[in-house]
Amino acid sequence: MALFSAELFPTKLSFVVFISYMGLFINQGILVTASKSPDNSYSYNTVTVVLLTELLKLMAAVAIFVRDHSLAELLEESVKHKKVCLLYFIPAALYCLYNNLQFVNLSAYDPTTYYLLLQFRVVVTGVVFQVLFKKVLSRMQWLSLLVLTVGCVIKEVRHDVVTVSDADTSHASLLSYLDIHLLFIMLQVFSSCFAGVYNEFLLKDTGVEVHIMVANAFMYLNSILCNTLVLAARGQLVQAFQADSVMSIMRPGVLAIIANNAAIGIVTSLFLRNLNSILKTFASALELMFTAVLCWLIFGIPVDVYTAVAILIVSAATYLYAQNPVVNKAKTELTPTEREKNGTSLGTSLGSPRGSKLAQSV
Length: 362
Fold this sequence. Notes:
Structural class: mainly alpha
Shape: globular
Main location: membrane
Distance between the termini: 32 Å
Helix content: over 70%
InterPro entries: Nuc_sug_transpt (IPR007271)
Strand content: under 5%
Protein name: UDP-galactose transporter senju
Subcellular location: Membrane
Number of strands: 0
Radius of gyration: 21 Å
Keywords: Membrane, Sugar transport, Transmembrane, Transmembrane helix, Transport
């Protein structure tokens, strides 16, 4: 099977979405890194930036929807699918955590290392995907996931570790990663995995009848609520929108972060509707190659031997996966036989008759 086969990318749109997704995430890491102060802090309120990003996403989703429909139809869809709107609070809360931790972790790691460490989510995504969609991954798919994970962690072996003696090497290597930032990375990994797969489930199963931009609007409304609660919990709700705080955000670099992250939100929903969560992890891994080169050119961050080896292994894992990709269609795209099979398994896995009933009705 060719690397860019019809099974891997069933339509031209799916390939464009794949490339756009990678490009936007590469931009995000670089833009956030460029916005840091010399002491690796930020001169703006990062939670406010995330909140404004969600507001821009909401405006974009509504604008796209009303281009072909009306505001009355948007309201009608929202009322009709209000239960789905409530379900979107789960991925919205997880994405809120992920987006805010992004700033914290990029202040501690360079973009290449940051994206490498995030690849721990690959195997986690595979497990969650199997449980939620009842799709057992093949040996080749698991092999590619495991190879990808090895490639993503190999850069960090003995990296930035000060060796006192040969006897202390392993001890130093272990202690060098037992810090709060690794915990934050792990929180990002799990929030990304569960949010991505659950979002795909809503788009392709429970919320398959909802227009994708209405679904996006549900997500962003809940995200705005989550980020507002974060600001309130930190006692910054009023301060975040004072003149000085707003002016610190009204800079080209920060506005670019907001615009780029808003585009990521729209493209991610298209990615999950047209492709799947497993391929999304490989897109994230491929970003490593481009991020490493661009960070070397822009910030002077060297591409050491560990990074080079990791990139080669990630490339090999991606090729392995392309030989036998996961195909996860929306219910509306399934044949009657596939619908009946998937409806039974999903309904059973979620412990709810709604999954089976919905599958039989589309």
